[in-house]
Automatic annotation (TrEMBL):
Function: Digests double-stranded RNA. Involved in the processing of primary rRNA transcript to yield the immediate precursors to the large and small rRNAs (23S and 16S). Processes some mRNAs, and tRNAs when they are encoded in the rRNA operon. Processes pre-crRNA and tracrRNA of type II CRISPR loci if present in the organism.
Gene giving rise to this polypeptide: rnc
Lineage, opening ranks: Bacteria, Bacillati, Actinomycetota, Actinomycetes, Micrococcales
Entry EC no(s): 3.1.26.3
GO annotation terms (biological process): mRNA processing; regulation of gene expression; rRNA processing; tRNA processing
Domain (RNase III) ranges: 30-156
NCBIfam families found in the cross-reference section: RNaseIII
Record's protein name: Ribonuclease 3
């Protein structure tokens, strides 16, 4: 390679590193996030994992978290599959597949992200931030996968697997929540029936270009709860809204029982 090209490539790498450093300086306290995750991650990699494509575009085309998301998805799937296989020796293939799907779905990962308050750490473009991107299920879920990928690259498979298991532990430890994550629409319908409420009503809208639409769902259970969710399909958006509604009612009940106790 000619010297001029080498200098150009070197300068491009330096420029990208500088942009990432600036992004790191703009992010919320990374030490706090690492404490919540229970693992130390190289700050540059963690910043990359938090960088949504909208932020990257607005900052001169710096790298975004999509490649890390691709890697993290694979690590997540393997870790969950192995755990379910080992801990459910009497469950058949179909049952294992359903459980795995519920734990690695965007709905479940977004729920995990909200439990650690991940939204406030995201690096989003101005428009995405103003439209509520910090609480969009698809963005939260993708970022969880990107963080898993970053941990894998920085600390190896064993540490990344341990992180996955810590993140999904709330779903596994709470059978009711696990059932809701598996089928949130049915769980919400059953919850409405127990409270003698009318069945849930869903309203769905969409936004964005035809090739990359985002669907927004609102579910209402009269006299009980109203909640919203979004996803890459109408079904995913309704599931996200149903899980949010179910979680709201469930947490409300837990607080009431605690106050009486």
């Amino acid at each position: 390679m000619p010297n001029a090209e080498r200098r150009h490539d070197k300068q491009a790498r330096i420029d990208n590193d500088a942009r990432l450093s600036r992004a790191s300086g703009e992010s919320t306290n990374l030490d706090e996030l690492q404490e919540l995750l229970g693992v130390q991650v190289d700050p540059t990699l963690l910043t990359l994992a938090l960088t949504h494509r909208s932020y990257a575009y607005e900052h001169g085309g710096i790298p975004n978290n999509e490649r890390l998301e691709f890697l993290g998805d694979s690590i997540l799937g393997q870790a969950v599959t192995v755990k379910l296989y080992r801990e459910n020796p009497r469950t058949d293939e179909g049952g294992l597949a359903k459980r795995r799907a519920s734990l690695v779905s965007s709905v479940a990962l977004a729920e995990v992200a909200r439990t650690i308050g991940l939204g406030r750490f995201l690096l989003l473009g101005r428009g995405e931030s103003q439209s509520g991107g910090a609480d969009k299920s698809s963005i939260l879920a993708d970022t969880v996968e990107a963080i898993i990928g970053a941990v894998y690259l920085d600390a190896g498979g064993e540490v990344a697997t341990a992180l996955v298991l810590r993140l999904i532990e709330p779903l596994l430890d709470d059978p009711d929540r696990f059932g809701a994550a598996l089928d949130p629409k049915t769980s919400l319908q059953e919850l409405a029936a127990r409270h003698s409420s009318a069945p849930p009503r869903y309203e769905v809208t969409d936004s964005g270009p035809d090739h990359n639409k985002t669907f927004h769902a609102t579910v209402t259970v009269d006299g009980l709860v109203s909640a919203s969710g979004e996803g890459s399909s109408k079904k995913n958006a309704e599931m996200a809204a149903a899980l949010q509604a179910w979680s709201t009612v469930n947490e409300r009940g837990s607080r009431a029982r605690a106050s009486r106790g």
